[in-house]
Amino acid sequence: MPGPRVIRAAGCVLWRRAGSGAGIEIALVHRPKWDDWSHPKGKCEKGEGALGAAVREVREETGMDCRPGVMLPTVRYTVGDVPKEVRYWEAEATGGAFTPGDEVDRLLWLPPEEARERLTRDQDRELVDALLTVLPHELL
Fold first, then answer.
1. DSSP secondary structure string for all residues of 105-131
2. Which of 32, 36, 53, 79 has the greatest number of CB atoms lying within 10 Å of its CB?
3. CATH of the domain at 104
4. Is 2 domain-assigned?
């Protein structure tokens, strides 16, 4: 008998250098359907690899192109009775522009500590901590 179906998803902890030249800012998206703040992420399409899905979701939800780097921890939880697995990468924003939509209506760029406070879920806060451990010290 096959095991339970797993919802496969992917996303990025998207960052950019702060405009002041000191430190970084992290992108958070607001999803009106759930009224939450999270990192850009979404389900993998049929036949799509996780990294490709992560980059596509960043573009769809934030309007940003990005350069993915180090893989971050995978987040696992259940949706109803179905397990969900979200693979994450750190990714530097390389350009683009945000346009609000039905799925994501707001985008914020915040310093890491403010991003941690704004995020709705603990596992998303843990991804901020993971990001800070993999970026070069001179960026922070």
1. -EEEEE-HHHHHHH-SSHHHHHHHHHH
2. 53
3. 3.90.79.10
4. no
Residue 87 identity (one-letter amino acid): R
- Mind listing the pLDDT tens digit for each residue in 90-112? 999 999 999 999 999 999 999 99
Amino acid, res. 49: G
Domains identified in the chain, total number: 1
* Boundaries of domain holding 90: 7-135
Give the integer Cα–Cα distance in Å for 129 and 125: 7
One-letter amino acid identity for 16?
R
Residue 57 lies in a domain: yes
Q: What is the pLDDT of residues 21-53, one digit of tens each?
A: 889 999 999 999 999 999 999 999 999 999 999
